[in-house]
Write a structure and sequence with these properties.
3 strands; 3-stranded mixed sheet
Length: 185
């Protein structure tokens, strides 16, 4: 199996979506962001952080969640609450992150890349809650049963073909390896 490299992911993504969605995947140096086409850039851009494969998949997952109207807005029109969220703010973050992290896990598995839940709140010391991990896992299983949305399916198929990974099944998504030891029993 090939090692997961952004230099492989970028042309895979762009080959699928540059013409059909006028969207390209771009490696960035700093914080990830989605930027719409403008006078200087003819394509919408999914800019991921520091050349990390996992960051690229995470930002792609957010793009897959966004509908046509949101894809016309920088950063999909959302305001981002930075690191250091309170417990209440973190709970809201987890509520809206279930869908994108379910897509990210599916895409990670499609590439044979290890998935990590993201709480995106390092400064507060609040990690991903067990409830959040369970919700993402349940959503993954539901998506596999009901069928993936078109963009997720197209990229999943391309990743599985490129990385020679097997067809997806619920058995490949083990929640136990992500849970704290006391939660597994």
């Amino acid at each position: 199996m090939r090692e997961c490299e952004v230099n492989d992911l970028i042309p895979l993504f762009n080959g699928l979506f540059l013409d059909s969605y006028n969207t390209e995947l771009v490696a960035g140096d700093d914080e990830p962001i989605y930027l719409t086409a403008d006078a200087h850039h003819p394509h919408h851009r999914i800019v991921f952080a520091h050349g990390f494969f996992a960051s690229a998949l995470h930002e792609i997952a957010h793009w897959c969640v966004a509908g046509p109207r949101r894809r016309q807005l920088n950063d999909f029109g959302y305001w981002y609450k930075p690191d250091g969220r309170s417990a209440e703010e973190q709970a809201e973050f987890e509520r809206v992150e279930v869908q994108p992290q379910a897509y990210e896990w599916i895409l990670s598995q499609s590439a044979g890349h290890r998935f990590h839940f993201s709480a995106d709140n390092l400064a507060s010391g609040i990690g991903a809650s067990t409830e959040f991990m369970r919700a993402v896992h349940a959503r993954v299983l539901q998506l596999l049963e009901q069928g993936l949305p078109v963009r997720v399916q197209r990229l999943s198929d391309a990743l599985r073909q490129y990385y020679a990974t097997p067809a997806l099944s619920g058995a490949q998504f083990s929640l136990e390896r992500h849970l704290p030891v006391q939660e597994v029993a």
